[in-house]
Structures are given as structure tokens and as C-alpha cells.
Amino acid sequence: MSKKRKFSEGTEGKESMHIDSLSLMEPYFLRKVLLEELGDNGGSSIHKPLAVAVHAVLLESGFVGFDPVSGLQTDRFDFPDEFLSPVSFYYSLPALLSVDRNDSSGSDASDYVVLAFLTLGRFIKVYGSLVIGSGIHKLSLDEYRFAPTLDLVIANSAKNDGSFNSNPEDEVMEFWKIVKDELAFPLLIDLCDKTHLALPPCFVRLPTELKFKVLELLPGADIARMECVCLEMRRLASSNDLWKQKFKQEFIDDDFIFIDYELEAEGMQEWKKLFHSWWVSRNERNRDDDDSLFYSPESRDYELTDLRSPSR
């Protein structure tokens, strides 16, 4: 049996509970791809931005554009304004394009993914499969739902301070989840299986809802560590609702707790930063308590009793 080559997704190291920039999160990556493909005006139709957004999800999932004629990677696609008839685009994986054609594993650049786009009224239909030998994965996207969000993403491209004028993040995340779970990951698994690439880790292959359920069961500090695993975990572990839940679970009984209820009512409370500040304060208080236990004269008898080796 031939040794499987490794499919891997980049990770980023980070200290526990570090509050960092969100510049690599999906809304910003999506904005980058939209601007590269469409320019500042977003194109002349609502069909094209939605197709480019699907393209962005596949890029973030590890795929690269592919030209089946030359067998080479392509960095740009010529997306039409309308999809009156099916329009196809092709994708592969970097690990496949770097394989020697004489590799004995039996796979080469002839294995790739085909995406076909077609519009039906307000819906854009996406059909994905391997070029040979796989089932078809189907996706239906409502342009009335997602097109306004993409317009907001493009409109905010003029801002260079790392923030959005509005809050399209939640809808972008929902779009990302739908495309990744129903299209990108199934195609990735099909292609890895066909070409003998090692499959992505089992946890990564779980549906997004199950991954989120796992995070909900973890303490806040462990959720912060999970952000170091991969970009998808970084996205899921940055959910404001998740950090709100963790904050109230771990700190709601603390004395003198302060929450800006006006910000909370407006949905503007940054719960991760609030959790981080209280997490640091709690650790400092615990450290002070330990110091007083071991060094105050009043606790000396307790200290000696507590630290004696157990009798054998």
C-alpha cells in the first residue's frame, strides 16, 4: 500500500487567552477575494458576487484554482455576470499539483473538482463533483438573503482600520458554514480519498454545529487554546455568544462584577475581551491568596500542617 501524502491546514500559534486581531477571519478573507475578483463596485449583477463568495470558501478550505487544459494552478477565474447556462470552474489541491507525474501512488493532476453554477430565479444552484467517479454535491443559495451581506462586505472595503461599518459577520459565518459543510468538505474528502491523500482530521470533518457543541463544553481558557488549532477553530472559538455564555458561567457569581448592560442590549459587548480581563484578575487574586496563605504569620500553623508529608 502506498504511503499517504498529508493534507494539512495551516495553524497559527498564540499564547493562552491572548486577545488578537481578527484580520484573518472569514469576513476579511471574503472581502479580499471579492475585491480581487470584482473590484470596488462589486460587479453589475447579484449572481457574480455570490459565485465569487463560494469560490472564496473553497480557497479557504485548501483548494486552488485549476486549469485542466494546462494542468497548472490558476489564480484567477473569469466569473461571468450571469449564469443563464451552467458555468463550470475547476479546483485541485496544492499537494496534487506538486506531485511528480511518475509518482507510483496512481494520482496526478487528472484528478480534480468541478463546480457548476446555474441561476434559477432568486437562487443560484451549485453542483460539485470530481471530474471522474464521485457523487454530486448540491447547494442552493438564496440571493435575496446573502447578496445584501456581500454588498456590505464590499462597501466596507474602504475602511482600513480592521472593522466593519455594520455587522455582516454573523450572516457571513452562516454562509461560510453552509458552503463548507455541504460542498467544500464533502468535495475535499472525495478528492483526498480518490487521490490517496490523508483525509483531514476527524474532528475537522464534523458538522459545524457539533464542533460548536464541543467548544461549549470546554472552560474558557481551553476555548482560547482551541483557537490555535486551525482557522476554522479560530472562527468558531471567536463567537461572541460563546464567550458571553462562558463569562456568565465562570464569573457571574464574582463580587463587584461589572457589565455594561447598555452595550449588551445593543449587541456591542465584546465578551471575549471582558472574559479575558476577568480571567486575568481572578488569577491575580488567586495568586495573592496563595501568597497570603504561605507567608502570613496567622497562617503559619496551617501552612506547616498542610504541607507536611503524609504519614506512612
TrEMBL record:
Transmembrane segments: none annotated. Pfam families: F-box-like (PF12937). InterPro entries: F-box-like_dom_sf, F-box_dom. It comes from the Eukaryota. Residues 200-246 form the F-box domain. SUPFAM superfamilies: F-box domain. This is F-box domain-containing protein.
